[in-house]
Amino acid sequence: MTATTPTTPTSTEKTGARTEAAADVITGARERIDALDDRIIGLVQERMAISAVIQDARIASGGRRVNLSREMEILTHYSEALGKPGTSLAMTLLELCRGRI
């Protein structure tokens, strides 16, 4: 039995690219996407916190936890900006920010 040493995948193996130049482009773009994802997560967390403040104020004033007309505005906004997938994204954001209704 011979011992094998683990090998580190090359940049072309990691990216699926066929050239080092393409692998470099992909690696750089992926780093930018990762940074954007971190910012998006932070923004969603901020949105969740602001939503909690709104819900607390609404409930404290005797209102309902959810304002359906406002949610429809949000759904329309996302749908107009991003098409059908935008509606799904908005629904996910609304669920994160107010929970299931």
UniProtKB/TrEMBL annotation:
GO terms for biological process: chorismate metabolic process. Residues 1-20 are annotated as: Disordered. Residues 1-14 have a biased composition (Low complexity). SUPFAM superfamilies: Chorismate mutase II. Its EC number is 5.4.99.5. GO terms for molecular function: chorismate mutase activity. Keywords: Isomerase. InterPro entries: Chorismate_II_sf, Chorismate_mutase_highGC-bac, CM_dom_sf, CM_II_prokaryot. The keyword RNA-binding does not apply. It is an enzyme of class 5 (isomerase). Transmembrane segments: none annotated. Residues 20-101 form the Chorismate mutase domain. Pfam families: CM_2 (PF01817). This is Chorismate mutase. It comes from Streptomyces acidicola.
